[in-house]
Amino acid sequence: MSEEELYLGREQTQIKHFILRKYLERFGPIVGTFAESITYVDCFSGPWNLASDDLRDSSFAIALEELRKVRTTLAERGRTLKLRCMFLEKKAGPFAKLREFGKQVQDAEIETKKGKLEDNIEAICQFVKKGGRWTFPFIFIDPTGWTGFAMDLIAPLLQLKPGEVLINFMTDYIRRFIDYPGQQTQKQFTSLFGSGESRFSRASKKRRWRRWNKLVPAPNSVSG
Ligand SMILES: C[S@@+](CC[C@H](N)C(=O)[O-])C[C@H]1O[C@@H](n2cnc3c(N)ncnc32)[C@H](O)[C@@H]1O
Q1: Which sequence spans correspond to the domains of the chain?
Q2: Which pTM was predicted?
Q3: Residue 214: what pLDDT?
Q4: Given this structure, which CATH class describes domain 3-169?
Q5: Considering only CA atoms, which residue is closest to atom 9 of ligand 1?
């Protein structure tokens, strides 16, 4: 299956995977000059909506492939780089495939974990810590919506030193709903941003309803 076929109708995923690939391609050789290992953590692993049977259009397979390339390049320069990965997924079906994938990897340390990110922040920090002083963590956060990665929740991951975090922040989707005035939705956005202030929009509740009503023909049927 060609790359084009693999991502047919899934252009957003294609771009996301392109960014992940390119990020690691540049990040790896820089970090690999001083780190003994890279600890890659996929917080929302999937597999999710894949077209391939061998899972090669998944973020975790792409990350591992890129990190292996980095390791090979560094080995040619006489440097040894260890790869450590933690893959997290909350749903049983995808997790079974993820675990199977992990079991087949022989050349990297792989830990697969079934559960929600919300319940595994400490486990992630512990896994990173187990890599020792000279590991460099890279955390990938790729949720399906705007929940599950509230600022307070992921703070310990953002504070890892050293460390880098890549978040797929679905701006278009979030912009569409940020003015929805339902209390629950507003609470979710406040916790996502860590405050009610720093947002794309600061519309009053009245203005939010007006905007929302323009978008949704039968506003009374929408609850939040
Ligand atoms: C957008 S998909 C991930 C796609 C994957 N990162 C990729 O690019 O191939 C989000 C995945 O996270 C899982 N998920 C949703 N909420 C979660 C949570 N709170 N904690 C962990 N996994 C979650 C979903 O079941 C789904 O498989």
Answers
A1: 3-169, 175-221
A2: 0.88
A3: 67
A4: alpha beta
A5: 58
